[in-house]
Design goal:
alpha+beta, four-stranded antiparallel sheet, two-stranded antiparallel sheet, elongated
């Protein structure tokens, strides 16, 4: 499982993100020949090692991110907003969750005690039975 550090939301599971491809591609001008567009869109390298990728936090804050990831180890080196103005537009990030998850209690959970029934209610229930 990949954990991607969103600059706005903090460390999140990769399931919240959509992979959008190689962030190093330089697309041709709109009027460029079809062959150049075909190369830019369909012909891709398959890099091994450090790589820069484009991801969208689709099930989170919606930001476009540049993520630096090692394609061999899947280690994520860092992430930043793809558009510099996003950090300003998003405003301050929400408070971070606690650094460490809460430890479960060492004691087993005790079942809740049964509610006490008033004596007159108990005798009435016994008569109906």
């Amino acid at each position: 499982m990949l954990r991607i550090p969103c600059p706005f939301c903090g460390l999140r599971d990769h399931a919240e993100f959509d992979y959008a491809g190689d962030a190093t591609i330089a697309y041709p001008e709109l009027g460029a020949p079809q062959e150049r567009w075909c190369e830019a869109v369909y012909l891709r390298d398959d890099p091994k090692g450090p790589h820069v990728e484009l991801w969208r936090h689709a099930r989170g804050c919606g930001s476009w991110l540049i993520v630096e990831r090692d394609t061999l180890t899947h280690e994520i080196k860092g992430a930043r907003f793809a558009h510099p103005g996003d950090a300003i537009a998003m405003g301050p990030p929400p408070p971070s969750p606690p650094a460490e998850p809460l430890a479960p209690s060492d004691e087993p959970e005790q079942p809740a005690p049964a509610p006490e029934v008033a004596p007159e209610a108990a005798s009435e229930a016994e008569r109906k039975a």
